[in-house]
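Let us practice reading a record.
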Amino acid sequence: MNVKIDYITGSRRFSNYWWATIIFLGGLFFFLAGISSYLNTNLVFFTSSSDLLFIPQGIVMTFYGTVAIFISLFLWFTIILNVGGGYNQFDLQKGLITIFRQGFPGKNRSIYLKYSIDEIQAIKVSIKDGLTPRREIFLKTKDKREIPLTRVGEPLVLSAIEEKATELAKFLGVVVEGIF
């Protein structure tokens, strides 16, 4: 097999769908509770929010609801665009490594990097444990650049990241750095 392709998930993860939905529903109910206090009618069926005073509780709930709705719309926007999604393609036949990622709309919507396999010095593994653990695989070039190959946000299991790095290093015929 001369071509290896690793797909990167990006924003279309279960956790993003979950939080976008929860934040939207919470924001909607806060917004409706605030508007209910202004109109003195009950717009939320499972509670009596018309008993709230519009100033200060109703205004604050309307504000927080609006902010939450906008945050959830931003999350849905990133999910629809699949920001961070893409692939890593390693082609031994052509001697090329292609890294593709999608971003936000604009001039640099897509990131498309191509490297010759001859430019690659090693596969580097970076492991940082603690409160915010980071486990990443980098493509290290001969001019000391480090290009990330793994997805952001969900650290892989230690054994899986070591296995993936050694498999990729064997495929490319380079060494692995950072594994003790």
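A brief commentary: Residues 13 and 79 are 8 Å apart (CA to CA).
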